[in-house]
Amino acid sequence: MRTTTVGDVTILLPDLDPDDLDSTTEPGADLTDAHVDDVSWRGAVLDAVRVRGSRITGSGLSESSWEGGTVFGCEIVRSDFSGAALSGLSIERSVLTGSRFTGARLTDVRLKDVLFDGCRFDYATFSRVAASGAVAFVDCILTDATWSSCRLPKVVLRSCQLARLELESSQLHGADLRGNSLRGLKTTLANLYGVILTEEQLPDLTHLAVGEFHIEVRAQ
Questions:
Q1: Residue 165 to residues 6, 22, 121, 215: CA-CA distances in angstroms?
Q2: Taxonomically, which superkingdom (predicted)?
Q3: Containing domain of residue 111, as a range?
C-alpha cells in the first residue's frame, strides 16, 4: 500500500503498474486499467463516466462537462481541465499532478485520499465540495478562486498561492494552512474557525481581522 504524508495527514496513493494499462483514445462509460496519453477530449460530455486504476497524461479536457461518475485509484498528470464543469463527481485515492483547472467549476464533488500537487485552480469555483478523507493541496495556485459552502475539514494546504481566494460559508475546521501567506485572502474570520496556523501567520490573521471589523489604526 503506497502512502504519502503531508503535514499530519496520510494519503493513500494509487498503485499502478504501467504494464497492466491498456492505451485508449476514446472516452467510454467505464475506463479501467487504461492509459490515456496526449488525447484531446475538449468539450466532451462525460455522463457518469467511471475511471478506475488508470493514468491520464498530457491530455486536454478543457470546456468538458463531467457529471456524476467516479475517479478511483488514478494518476492524472499535466492535463488541462480549464473551463470544465465537474458535477457530482467522486474522486478517491488519486493523485493529480501539474494539471490545470483554470476557471473550472467543481460542484458537489466528493474527495477522499486525494493529492493535488502543482495544480492551477486560478479563477476556479468550488461549490459544495466536500472531503470525507485525507486531502492535500501542495504547491497549487488558488488565486482568484472561490470556495462556497464547502466542507473540507482537516484539508492541508502547503506552499500554495492564495491571493484573493474567496471563502464563503465554508467549514475548514482542523484545516492545516501552515506555510501559506494569508495576505489578500477574501474571507470573514468565521470561515477560518479551527484552522491550524504558525506564529508567523498571525500578522496576516490580524490584517484580516482589522479589515473585517473596520478597525481604524492611527499613530499614537
A1: 21, 39, 10, 22
A2: Bacteria
A3: 3-212
